[in-house]
Inverse folding.
């Protein structure tokens, strides 16, 4: 039996719930929270952020500023985040004063720095690719190539990650604290979304398989169930649960993994929030990732993660060569197909490779959904007016 740690007053206007970050993940979370009358108050630096029109209140302010984050959180009973690059020191102070912060600030401190992430994997015995930490590009003169360079902090949506294939690439490398990872020959990239509540209950979603747009360095299509055997599926589920348990984390965690050519699973990166690789769960699973995040941080029983239909998801990215007020070309044509579910994020302006929305396509099998998703991908173009 579960007893909600928030008591019985977590819904309605008397409970002050705050979310730091007001992007599309927050917008989809709020849509779920509205179903149980949870009032969500949001902080974001962009006055026109996707959450600005759906939040119970919307505060404009910098997420990396101590005073701004502290003032926003001090009258809240519970805080959560939809982005990692925020002022953790303010969250730590609020936690000491009795505000519940999920995921915990100590977890955010690890995850927001890719160097700390990698060191955590080593300490916890979690398989990951070999790596070393460097302070600037001068260390690359002693490096063997090829190598993957990742900025330790500040990267997002494919930014802050690049493959350096030879010494000729050093001039274009990041001249900042970075992780250098061995370039792993992998067969597939997988992701497992796992949740954990304060009572220690965990639940994970079936693995998804991700396909990348190499130019944008972003996922362009993913599908579930992944095309892997049962043994690999079970290992992926177990690995995701190991990560969240070792973190002793409350909330939702996306665990991105490589399936290597010799059958190993290696953790690539983790994200302590709803994630792009879980968007399909809205249509394809009994419980969506957004509802699961809500359940986990309120210490409610976690929902069933069982898939009810196969699906594929494509990201709607801004087309190259377009920058300005957004226009979705071909959306009506795509909606004429069965099983097409668009999610437009409400961003007023597009630019090349910006995430503007996504479309989940359901089908009789993953292969069927992927085939239809590829058709939809050709129909819809995100351009400017």
């Amino acid at each position: 039996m579960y007893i909600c740690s928030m008591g019985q007053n977590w819904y309605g206007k008397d409970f002050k719930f705050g979310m730091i970050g007001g992007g599309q993940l927050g917008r989809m979370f709020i849509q779920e929270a509205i179903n149980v009358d949870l009032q969500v108050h949001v902080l974001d630096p962009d006055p026109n952020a996707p959450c600005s029109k759906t939040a119970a209140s919307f505060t404009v302010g910098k997420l990396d500023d101590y005073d701004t984050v502290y003032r926003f959180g001090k009258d809240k009973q519970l805080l959560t985040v939809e982005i990692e690059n925020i002022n953790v020191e303010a969250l730590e102070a609020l936690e000491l004063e009795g505000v519940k912060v999920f995921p915990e600030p100590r977890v955010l401190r690890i995850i927001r720095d890719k160097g700390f992430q990698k060191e955590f994997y080593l300490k916890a015995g979690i398989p990951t690719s070999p790596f070393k930490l460097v302070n600037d590009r001068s260390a690359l003169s002693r490096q063997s190539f090829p190598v993957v360079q990742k900025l330790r902090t500040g990267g997002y949506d494919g930014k802050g990650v690049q493959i350096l294939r030879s010494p000729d690439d050093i001039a274009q490398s990041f001249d900042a604290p970075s992780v250098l990872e061995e370039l792993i020959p992998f067969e597939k990239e997988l992701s497992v979304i796992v949740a954990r509540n304060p009572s220690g209950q965990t639940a994970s979603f079936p693995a998804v398989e991700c396909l990348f747009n190499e130019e944008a360095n972003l996922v362009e299509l993913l599908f579930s169930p992944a095309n892997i055997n049962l043994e690999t599926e079970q290992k992926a589920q177990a690995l995701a649960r190991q990560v969240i348990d070792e973190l002793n984390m409350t909330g939702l965690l996306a665990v991105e993994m490589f399936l290597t050519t010799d059958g190993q699973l290696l953790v690539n990166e983790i994200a302590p929030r709803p994630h792009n690789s879980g968007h399909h769960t809205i249509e394809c699973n009994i419980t969506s990732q957004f509802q699961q995040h809500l359940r986990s941080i309120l210490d409610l029983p976690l929902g069933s993660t069982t898939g009810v239909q196969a699906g594929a998801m494509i990201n709607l990215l801004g087309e190259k060569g377009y920058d300005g007020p957004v226009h979705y070309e071909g959306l009506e044509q795509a909606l004429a197909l069965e099983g097409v579910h668009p999610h437009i994020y409400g961003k007023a302006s597009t630019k090349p490779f910006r995430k503007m929305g996504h479309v989940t396509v359901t089908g009789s099998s993953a292969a069927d959904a992927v085939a239809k998703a590829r058709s939809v991908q050709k129909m819809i173009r995100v351009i400017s007016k």
